[in-house]
């Protein structure tokens, strides 16, 4: 029997200026399957999905949805054909309620008198249908957690009768248990006949839920394979074009004297009592659930937020950084978790972003020299970009993360705090980032890594601190690091 394709994208090409983001790409998805899309940062996954959603016009190629060719692929036309995309940055209106967000498109279209009671009832029904009936349809979306906002976004798509749902890295911002819930929901949607396209850099997720995987590399189609017929290693080789023997490279750092000590730190409403120390050449992991206060702790140390009480000792001396500038001057760096709002200036050139920290205090700048240095820096972590003068928003998500990291590699730090350093980064580049972390440690830098990926904490750290509800619940040395141990401490059991 001939395959029953619901999405057929063939010979798709798309360029942005000189960058060929997609060249003669194919994507054929059968009705009712979960089809994963994978590839390195900048491979063209998001662009292909934006072309499918009608958000970007294609240069060449055809799109056929359920047997009908999309001749005018605008966002409206593609929604009408049954395709909806759940982007990493949700398209929700934070000031409107859950119910209003779910039905916003219908409300705008009908322009009729709105029966609020009915709207709430229908929203509740939608939420119940996918097992989230406990979300209040009258609540403002801005007050919901990221995971719940994502549920609202999914309901919004389902309310539009979407036949094909595209998830673009949906779990990057979710906790372990939220991720499990989302994966279950996706399986449920599949059982109800919805076709799913799924982008993720987390291979274990792809192997858990997908039926087929399409691999892209450098904007080109590599292959489509049955998930059951391939191993993780084979998939990685297809993706990066080489074998990755070891995701977490070995390190033989010499751990030296104590350089940072935090005593009974209290900050904001969340962090109540945090104490720990960091030594020269040490990689210290911070594990815990989202909302456990890890980011807030680091921000207070870095002078980005005020501490209410407690002490920070740096090389044995008490310090009171009033702002990040003071911390940076003393050799402390922080790569924030949210690169979009804190890590990068998206409307500024890549070069400017990569030298943001190193140029502080330098009046005269030699552009040529700077460009050359930036190129070298970015090559160290295989960043894919057009020109150093392009704005940061022209970069793919993972490559934005690399530029945000690069700016810290351009300066000498003694302590560097990396908040979710590999979020949205592909496996090949992850290894390169781990290698850089190792090099920093070998050069005597004390490195702190906050990570929601337990494998990352286990694979890279000499020791881990686990936080829960604003307090430290445990400290685990390398030899005892295990997922089980980290989960127990994070959940308080
Ligand atoms: N609006 C844009 N303007 C210029 N170039 C762009 C734009 N959007 C994407 N690109 C370029 O197109 C290429 C593909 O990017 P895309 O975002 O599709 O990659 P991706 O596979 O989704 O990567 P990631 O895993 O990092 O999210 C990249 O080289 C990127 O820099």
Describe the protein in words.
There is one protein chain. By secondary structure, the protein is α/β, with parallel strands linked by helices. The protein has two domains: 5-240, Rossmann fold; 258-491, P-loop containing nucleotide triphosphate hydrolases (Rossmann fold), CATH 3.40.50.300. The chain has helices spanning 45-52, 75-80, 98-102, 104-110, 116-129, 146-159, 176-191, 203-209, 232-240, 294-301, 324-329, 339-343, 350-354, 367-380, 397-409, 427-442, 454-460, 483-491; strands at residues 5-16, 19-30, 34-38, 60-65, 68-69, 83-86, 164-168, 195-199, 212-217, 220-226, 258-267, 271-279, 283-288, 309-314, 317-318, 332-335, 415-419, 446-450, 463-468, 471-477. It has a six-stranded mixed sheet with strand order 6-7-8-3-9-10, with helices on both faces. Helix 7 links the parallel strand 7 and strand 8 (195-199). The longest helix is centred in the middle third of the chain and has 16 residues, at 176-191. Adenosine-5'-triphosphate (ATP) is lined by residues 16, 19, 21, 39, 41-47, 384, 394-399, 426.
Would you spell out the secondary-structure blueprint of this structure?
Elements: E1 5-16, E2 19-30, E3 34-38, H1 45-52, E4 60-65, E5 68-69, H2 75-80, E6 83-86, H3 98-102, H4 104-110, H5 116-129, H6 146-159, E7 164-168, H7 176-191, E8 195-199, H8 203-209, E9 212-217, E10 220-226, H9 232-240, E11 258-267, E12 271-279, E13 283-288, H10 294-301, E14 309-314, E15 317-318, H11 324-329, E16 332-335, H12 339-343, H13 350-354, H14 367-380, H15 397-409, E17 415-419, H16 427-442, E18 446-450, H17 454-460, E19 463-468, E20 471-477, H18 483-491
Parallel strand pairs: 3-8, 3-9, 6-7, 7-8, 13-18, 13-19, 16-17, 17-18
Antiparallel strand pairs: 1-2, 1-4, 4-5, 9-10, 11-12, 11-14, 14-15, 19-20
Protein name: Sugar ABC transporter ATP-binding protein
Domain ABC transporter: 7-243, 254-493
Pfam family, one: ABC_tran
């Amino acid at each position: 029997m001939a395959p029953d394709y619901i999405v057929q994208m063939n010979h798709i090409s798309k360029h942005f200026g000189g960058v060929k983001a997609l060249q003669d790409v194919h994507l054929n998805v059968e009705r009712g399957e979960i089809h994963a899309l994978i590839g390195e940062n900048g491979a063209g996954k998001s662009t292909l999905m934006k072309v499918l959603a009608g958000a970007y016009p294609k240069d060449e190629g055809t799109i056929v949805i359920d047997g009908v060719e999309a001749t005018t692929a605008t966002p409206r036309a593609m929604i009408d054909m049954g395709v909806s995309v759940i982007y990493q940055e949700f398209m929700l209106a934070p000031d409107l309620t859950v119910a209003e967000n779910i039905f916003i498109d219908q409300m705008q279209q009908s322009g009729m008198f709105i029966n609020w009671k009915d709207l709430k009832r229908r929203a509740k029904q939608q939420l119940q249908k996918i097992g989230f009936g406990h979300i209040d349809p009258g609540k403002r979306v801005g007050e919901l957690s990221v995971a719940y906002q994502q549920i609202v976004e999914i309901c919004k798509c389902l309310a539009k009768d979407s036949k094909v749902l595209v998830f673009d890295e949906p779990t990057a911002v979710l906790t372990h248990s939220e991720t499990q819930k989302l994966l279950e929901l996706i399986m449920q949607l599949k059982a109800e006949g919805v076709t799913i396209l799924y982008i993720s850099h987390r291979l274990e997720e792809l192997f858990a839920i997908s039926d087929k995987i399409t691999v892209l590399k450098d904007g080109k189609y590599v292959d489509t394979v049955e998930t059951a017929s391939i191993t993780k290693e084979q998939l990685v080789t297809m993706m990066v074009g080489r074998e990755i023997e070891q995701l977490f490279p070995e390190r033989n750092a010499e751990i030296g004297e104590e350089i940072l000590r935090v005593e009974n730190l209290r900050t904001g409403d969340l962090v109540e009592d945090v104490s720990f120390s960091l030594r020269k050449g040490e990689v210290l992991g911070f594990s815990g659930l989202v909302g456990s206060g890890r980011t807030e702790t680091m921000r207070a140390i870095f002078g980005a937020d005020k501490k209410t009480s407690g002490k920070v000792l740096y090389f044995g001396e008490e310090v009171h950084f009033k702002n990040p500038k003071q911390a940076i001057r003393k050799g402390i760096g922080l790569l924030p978790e949210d690169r979009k709002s804190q890590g990068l200036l998206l409307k500024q050139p890549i070069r400017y972003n990569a030298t943001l920290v190193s140029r502080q205090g330098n009046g005269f700048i030699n552009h040529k020299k700077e460009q050359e240095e930036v190129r070298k820096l970015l090559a160290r972590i295989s960043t894919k970009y057009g020109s150093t003068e392009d704005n940061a928003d022209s970069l793919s998500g993972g490559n934005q993360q690399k530029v945000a990291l690069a700016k810290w590699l351009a300066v000498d730090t003694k302590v560097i705090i990396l908040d979710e350093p590999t979020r949205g980064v592909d496996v090949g580049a992850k290894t390169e980032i781990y290698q850089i972390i190792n090099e920093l440690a070998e050069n005597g830098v004390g490195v702190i890594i906050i990570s929601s990926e337990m494998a990352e904490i286990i694979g890279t750290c000499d020791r881990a601190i686990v936080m829960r509800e604003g307090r430290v619940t445990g400290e685990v040395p390398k030899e005892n690091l295990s997922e089980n141990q980290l989960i127990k401490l994070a959940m308080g059991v």
